[in-house]
Design brief:
- The chain is an alpha/beta fold.
- The chain is built from 6 helices and 12 strands.
- A 9-stranded mixed sheet has the order 6-5-4-7-8-9-10-11-12. The protein has a 3-stranded mixed sheet with strand order 1-3-2, covered by helices on one side.
- A hairpin with a 2-residue loop joins strand 4 (151-157) and strand 5 (160-165).
């Protein structure tokens, strides 16, 4: 019986030892998972990747914003092109354009006002017909094109002598413009008040006068004077070789009236008829003289 108890005691001790060993092994596994250096290293790498991704995103956002701000700025001086420099040199127009771009509101594309700039330039230079500003999408330097209508004639009235462009607008005073002397001179007796930048003639009237002077030059008929009388839409021509003047109607067909005048002039000369006051070609198909 004693031997049996001892065996039982050993057996129990063995079981207790095995159980304790098992408990110790499991506890060791649990602790080792919490303090594993490999797990800590992976977590640190994960955090580093997240911070790197955030830093990359922030850098991209800053770069995009910088490009956006850069592209919205407008630099000076702009690239300027002047279509016609009959009245002023390119340098004169360029200086005025640069002054407009130096204004704070015109230094960026958001507040830039093209219409206002054109208005200011046309007040300063009435000969300007149009201002076109091309703002680049990404770049900063704008392109400016200044369009100026060709001069057509000189018009002298009570308020002085002015250059009229092809659109019929009073472009500028002829004083100081050396090239203006090459333009045909028309005298105004209607009392119309000429002002720079204002319309003086309709486009058809300008075309009529240009056609008349061109045909007379071709036919070698010397012009002494061209005059707008008080009667509306009427143009009087005085040649240097005849005592009479010729009446034209600016609202009619220029080619027809010019043709009638040249034919009547030749016929009257060949027949020895000399009008003493006027020759009237305003009615199509009919010529009157006095």
């Amino acid at each position: 019986m004693l031997l049996n108890r001892r065996k039982n005691s050993k057996s129990n001790a063995g079981r207790q030892g095995t159980s304790a060993a098992g408990r110790f092994y499991r506890a060791g596994n649990s602790n080792s998972s919490r303090v594993s250096p490999f797990g800590n290293k992976q977590a640190a790498q994960s955090r580093s990747r997240r911070w790197l991704a955030r830093l990359t995103d922030i850098t991209i956002v800053i770069a995009v914003l910088a490009v956006a701000v850069y592209s919205l700025m407008v630099s000076s001086p702009p690239d300027i092109r002047v279509v016609n420099n009959f009245y002023n040199t390119k340098e004169v127009y360029s200086k005025a354009v640069i002054e407009q771009f130096d204004k704070i509101k015109n230094s960026n594309k958001i507040t830039f006002n093209e219409k206002e700039m054109e208005s200011q330039l046309r007040k300063q230079f009435p000969e300007i017909s149009k201002v076109i500003v091309d703002l680049p999408l990404v770049g900063q330097r704008p392109k400016v094109t200044i369009e100026i209508d060709e001069p057509a004639l000189r018009l002298a009235g009570g308020s002085g002598e002015y250059v009229i462009n092809k659109a019929g607008v009073v472009a500028a005073k002829s004083d100081g413009l050396a090239a203006a002397s090459s333009l045909v001179l028309v005298r105004d007796e209607s009392g119309f008040d000429l002002q720079a930048g204002s319309p003086a003639l309709d486009k058809q009237a300008v075309i009529f006068i240009e056609a008349l002077t061109a045909q007379l030059k071709k036919a070698k008929v010397p012009i002494e004077s061209l005059t707008f009388p008080p009667r509306a839409q009427e143009l009087n021509l005085k040649t240097a070789d005849q005592p009479y003047y010729v009446k034209f109607y600016l609202g009619g067909d220029a080619a027809s009236q010019i043709g009638q005048f040249l034919a009547a002039r030749q016929q009257l000369t060949s027949e020895g008829i000399q009008p003493h006051e006027y020759l009237d070609v305003r009615v199509a198909g009919k010529v009157f003289y006095k």
